[in-house]
Structures are given as structure tokens and as C-alpha cells.
């Protein structure tokens, strides 16, 4: 008798949890999911393109570009050389070596979060 009462209350408890869990299910429209995924992909793929356009390609800084002007200003400010770890040095390094896996993950996550925030309004 005790075992059947325990089993009955356990089944009732499981049924309540299942009912609550099914009531909390969030169904996202396919368009919103696609927006979030596209936001992540665009964020990851846009950075190398922007670096190239600015003048930080894999081959080195392009002459007469924004990168060349930035490098010139940084060299003048530092007495003739670009300081290691400066913005110009970091962008040049990213342009030459590409993005690391962790950087891609962070950019993708940030792009997805921004796209999700924008998608909430549509």
C-alpha cells in the first residue's frame, strides 16, 4: 500500500514537471533564427574584408591607404616607430595572420547577439 502511494505521487510529480516544461517551450520563427545565424556569419566574415579595404591585407600595409596614414601618425607620435601592441600593430597582425578561432567565436557570438536584439523588434 505504501509503495503504491509513493509511486502514485511520483507519477503525479513527473506529470506536473512535464506539464510545466511543455508550457515553457519557446518556439522561434525560422526567420528569426536565420537572422541570428546570418548576423554571426556576417560579423566573422566582415572583419577581414574591412581590414583589407582599410589597407591591412596579408601582404602588408598598402601604400596611400588609411592604414598607411594610421601607421605614419603612430610613427610620428612614437618618435619614428610603431609601438608593439598599438592599434596599428594589432590591426596589421590581424590582417597578416587572420583571425584566431577564439576571435572568430567572440565575433560570431557578438554578431548573433546584435542580430537577435534587432530581430526582437520585427
TrEMBL record:
Q: Which Gene3D superfamilies match?
A: 6.10.110.10
Q: Where does the UniProt annotation locate this protein?
A: Membrane
Pfam families noted in UniProt? Ifi-6-16
Q: Which UniProt keywords apply?
A: Membrane, Transmembrane, Transmembrane helix
Indicate whether Cell wall biogenesis/degradation appears among the record's keywords: no
What's the chief localization of this chain? membrane
Q: How does it sit in the membrane?
A: Multi-pass membrane protein
GO CC term, one of those recorded: membrane
Name the family the entry cites.
Belongs to the IFI6/IFI27 family.
> What name has this protein been given in UniProt?
Interferon alpha-inducible protein 27, mitochondrial isoform 1
